[in-house]
From TrEMBL:
<dbReference type="InterPro" id="IPR036514">
    <property type="entry name" value="SGNH_hydro_sf"/>
</dbReference>
<dbReference type="InterPro" id="IPR013830">
    <property type="entry name" value="SGNH_hydro"/>
</dbReference>
<feature type="domain" description="SGNH hydrolase-type esterase">
    <location>
        <begin position="6"/>
        <end position="177"/>
    </location>
</feature>
<protein>
    <submittedName>
        <fullName>Lysophospholipase L1</fullName>
    </submittedName>
</protein>
<dbReference type="Pfam" id="PF13472">
    <property type="entry name" value="Lipase_GDSL_2"/>
</dbReference>
<dbReference type="InterPro" id="IPR045136">
    <property type="entry name" value="Iah1-like"/>
</dbReference>
Length: 195
């Protein structure tokens, strides 16, 4: 039995035609007994998530997955890289008051289809991912690079970024399955250590 707390923006919150957030469905397909508390809020950036964590008492969970950054790097409402870095450090410090480092996983913003995305570029995705990877390394948390995940998937970017909105950012079933697999790999890697 596992429990997972999901924090982030619309990429965790979107239903994409399902009866609950699509990531919940994809995770339950791989871990049928998982208990999921999905607190993601569409449109949130790292400032918003930090405010939530400062106000709320979080539920006990085996795992916390943090998927924030797609709105931080959007050029029409950009959170500058240095601010994003400071926010992430504060977020992880707050989480570590309740959860062990090995139970926390940061997920990078996904690559985008620039032909459909006016406000996001893969150059910025790479820059914000570097910051996320550095914070993860400094604080001893797990890290999932969606850049690596997309590159190793064997699928073209156009297919990986296609969802109901078809805006080059909000993805659909294919990518939720890939993301859930990466999340389960992280969970299983910790379980193997404890045997």
């Amino acid at each position: 039995m596992h429990s997972a707390l999901l924090l982030g923006d619309s990429l965790f919150a979107r239903f994409e035609g399902m009866a609950e957030p699509h990531i919940n469905v994809a995770l339950k397909n791989l871990l049928p007994l998982v208990q999921i508390d999905n607190k993601a809020v569409s449109g949130d950036n790292s400032f918003d998530l930090l405010k939530i964590l400062q106000k709320q008492t979080l539920t006990p969970s085996d795992w916390v997955f943090v998927f924030i950054g797609a709105n931080d790097l959007a050029q029409h409402k950009q959170v500058f890289l240095g601010e994003y870095w400071e926010n992430l450090k504060a977020i992880v410090k707050l989480l570590k008051e309740t959860y062990p480092s090995q139970g926390i996983c940061l997920i990078s913003p996904p690559p985008v289809d620039e032909s459909k995305q006016a406000y996001r570029s893969n150059y910025l995705v790479a820059k914000y991912t570097e910051v996320l990877a550095k914070v993860s390394q400094d604080y001893g948390t797990h890290f999932i690079s969606l850049q690596d995940c997309f590159q190793n998937s064997g699928y073209p970017l156009e297919e990986l970024t296609k969802g109901i909105l078809d805006d080059g950012l909000h993805f659909g079933s294919l990518t939720y399955k890939l993301l859930a697999k990466e999340m389960v790999k992280v969970i299983e890697s910790e379980e193997e250590k404890s045997f």
